[in-house]
Design a protein that fits this description.
The complex is a heterodimer.
Chain A lengths: L1 E3 L9 H4 L6 H18 L2 H9 L1 H12 L7 H23 L1 H8 L3 H5 L5 H31 L6 E9 L10 E2 L10 E10 L2 E14 L6 H28 L3 H16 L4 H16 L11 H4 L3 H25 L9
Helix pairs in contact in A: 2-8, 3-5, 3-8, 4-5, 4-8, 5-8, 5-9, 5-10, 6-9, 8-9, 8-13, 9-10, 9-11, 9-13, 11-13
Chain B lengths: L5 E10 L2 E11 L3 E5 L6 H8 L7 E6 L2 E2 L6 H4 E4 L11 H12 L3 H14 L15 H13 L5 E4 L8 H16 L3 E6 L2 H7 L2 E6 L2 E7 L1 H8 L3 E6 L3 H9 L6 E5 L2 E6 L2 H15 L5 E3 L3 H12 L1
Parallel strand pairs in B: 3-8, 3-9, 6-7, 7-8
Antiparallel strand pairs in B: 1-2, 1-4, 4-5, 9-10, 11-13, 11-14, 12-13
Classes of the chains: A alpha+beta, B alpha/beta.
């Protein structure tokens, strides 16, 4: 066995006299600060803002150009475009490199050569990217809100019977049952009164159609903001953890996002677990819920199931990532 | 055993099919130790086992009486200066050292105080408020040393800190390592240039093709090295002027000029290295980088392996 003995200590060194006081939580917050700064100084924030801008841009198109295309463009576009599509890619772009870039350029060595437990560093890195990512992903929703103020609301119609000669109403104005999409404005249509298949001589029914300018309500926006924040955290955690578990997570993340979520996932348990839970949990917290989603509540999971599901995804994924990080060596083959 | 700084027993590490370190059995009590070997010898792998960055595939790698891997208490006592030059480039040098001390667990005030002290110690204070992406190679080396020193560790592991460094940083690092040794700290420093290690410590571990070939005093190795002229590559924007200057030096046996660099061969590298800083300063010839290709060391190891 080779034995090497260096020079003995010449003086009583400072480090042997007193152990410095350090806190693992301080270490975790420092890891979060690094992660947030990496996110904010890099190009990721611009890509995220640009991708997120698709929501208000398309909303503008539908509100100002194709007024009759949708009943409720704000919530419809939010649900089908932003929540189930764009958010997935914002999370992918924002969260995938949060840990994996440190592994790729080997700066992770600086963090892991510290007494702060690795799971706390992983959680710190996760929290540090999630906060700015959530804030940036809320901006398109907030920008879309005033655009939603211009949207055309639900169709309102009232009808009453009038005397043909005098033009005086002979009945109360009554709402017409049912609602239809409508382009806006007010119109009056005169129709002959039918009674058992015969026209009733001197009377006619006047139908007044009026679309009222329906502002996107506070609860519509509250739903959109809440669902966005939840969606980013859920999907972002999945992509972040892929970066902790695998050496090159980008291909895996893109495959997950494009192939599984967009094409296969629509009929999968995963969509139910994530997308539906986000929608259901957010809706169930609201009283009353946006009318657009009233039907969704019938199939949405209960609040307890929803929140349990939503909490479980990040907790389980982060716990798995922390365990792997404790055992994994994040260094490539040595050169020396 | 708990008194030992380092205890490796049949430590083996492989990457896929490649065995980087093979059956290394070694005890080091402490002090300044030079880890010497050519590129690809397994020095970095050795250091990664020593710092707990990875576990051995087989055998044991203990530091201060406990396994190095997964032992976070070790990092209270150990400072690591890796061989790569990657940083959080968007930070200033001061921010980089401060935030790593915060990751260590020090509060902001303490982290700031320690960062300032560490940067001053490695003479990085004057440029520490510049963004890292503007740093030269030498500045980066100083910054790596500062982050390793910030928490006042008992053991410093320095992976090729002189690689590609200019004459000034070489002199400073050598002096710093000596000083750390005098303070009673242990330092494990790797290099593929014997005379550099020799300037810091007489205690060396020779490693070649993943095996420890020899451990102990440098003098025997010195004799073997002297049989092989030492090559030194110096990168400069004025290679002809530098060649003209060095051609007059008695230590230089051979010179060749390439674009942006000259290669010097000398049988007396230590005299040459001692002379070079003052020569360059007097002649005002800028030198960006000095490298010592390990061909001479390789020849020695070949001799050792065959012998």
């Amino acid at each position: 066995m080779a034995q090497v003995t260096g020079n003995p200590p010449a003086v009583q060194p400072a480090w042997s006299r007193s152990a410095p006081s350090v806190s693992p939580l301080v270490g975790m917050f420092a890891a979060a600060r690094i992660s947030a700064r990496q996110f904010l100084v890099g190009p990721r924030k611009w890509v995220i803002l640009l991708a997120g801008a698709a929501f208000p841009a398309l909303l503008s198109l539908f509100v100002f150009v194709q007024k009759e295309a949708m009943i409720h463009p704000f919530l419809q576009l939010f649900d089908q475009l932003y929540l189930q599509g764009i958010i997935l890619f914002l999370a992918l772009i924002g969260a995938t490199p949060a840990f994996s870039s440190d592994v790729e350029d080997a700066t992770i060595i600086y963090l892991f050569a510290r007494p702060t437990p690795r799971p706390l560093i992983v959680i710190g890195k996760w929290a540090g990217v999630m906060l700015p990512l959530v804030i940036l992903s809320l901006i398109p929703v907030l920008v879309a809100w005033p655009l939603g103020l211009r949207q055309v609301g639900t169709y309102k119609a009232r009808a009453w019977v009038k005397d043909r000669s005098s033009g005086e109403p002979t009945s109360e104005k009554r709402p017409v049952a049912g609602e239809q999409p409508h382009g806006g404005g007010t119109s009056v249509e005169k129709r002959p009164v039918n009674s058992g298949g015969n026209s009733a001589g001197g009377h006619y029914v006047e139908v007044e159609e009026r679309s009222q300018r329906h502002e996107t309500s506070g609860r519509d926006v509250a739903f959109a903001l809440g669902a966005t924040a939840l969606g980013i955290v859920e999907y972002g955690t999945i992509f972040f953890v892929l970066g902790v578990l695998f050496a090159r997570p980008y291909i895996l993340s893109i495959c997950y996002a494009v192939i599984f979520e967009v094409f296969i996932g629509r009929a999968s348990v995963n969509l139910w677990v994530v997308s539906k839970l986000i929608r259901g949990a957010t809706l169930r917290l609201m009283d009353p819920v946006p009318r657009f989603f009233e039907g969704s509540l019938e199939t949405a999971p209960s609040l307890l199931v929803g929140w349990l599901g939503l909490v479980c995804v990040p907790v389980v994924f982060l716990a798995a990532a922390s365990l792997v990080a404790m055992k994994k060596s994040y260094v490539s083959k040595g050169t020396g | 055993m708990s008194g030992q700084m380092l205890h490796f027993e049949k430590a083996t590490r492989w990457y896929g099919q490649v065995v980087a370190l093979r059956d290394v059995t070694l005890d080091v009590a402490g002090g300044v130790i030079g880890l010497l070997g050519p590129n690809g010898a397994g020095k970095t792998t050795f250091m990664r086992l020593l710092t707990g960055a990875m576990p051995p595939s087989q055998g044991i790698a203990w530091v201060y009486g406990a396994p190095a891997f997964g032992n976070r208490d070790l990092y209270h006592r150990l400072g690591y200066c890796p061989d790569h030059d990657n940083f959080y480039e968007f930070m200033t040098g001061r921010e980089f050292v401060e935030i790593l001390l915060s990751v260590h667990g020090f509060d902001r005030v303490e982290a700031r105080r320690r960062a300032a002290a560490a940067l001053d110690r490695v003479r990085a204070g004057e440029f520490s408020d510049r963004k890292i992406y503007t740093y030269s190679k030498g500045m980066r080396q100083r910054l790596k040393l500062a982050q390793a020193l910030g928490h006042d560790p008992e053991l410093l592991v320095l992976d090729e800190p002189l690689n590609g460094a200019d004459p000034l940083i070489r002199r400073d690092v050598i002096e710093l390592v000596r000083e750390l040794g005098r303070e009673g700290r242990s330092v494990v420093i790797s290099s593929h240039v014997l005379h550099e290690v020799e300037a810091m410590t007489p205690n060396i571990v020779l490693i070649h093709k993943g095996r420890v070939k020899a451990a102990g005093n440098v003098h025997e190795i010195r004799k073997m090295i002297d049989w092989h002229p030492h090559s030194i590559v110096m990168k400069t924007p004025r290679p002809r002027d530098l060649a003209a200057l060095l051609a007059r030096e008695p230590e230089v046996s051979e010179l060749s000029i390439a674009e942006g660099a000259i290669t010097v061969r000398t049988p007396k590298p230590e005299e040459f290295y001692a002379r070079i800083p003052s020569l360059l300063i007097d002649a005002e010839i800028p030198v960006e980088e000095i490298e010592s290709p390990d061909d001479n060391l390789d020849a020695v190891f070949k001799y050792l392996s065959e012998g």
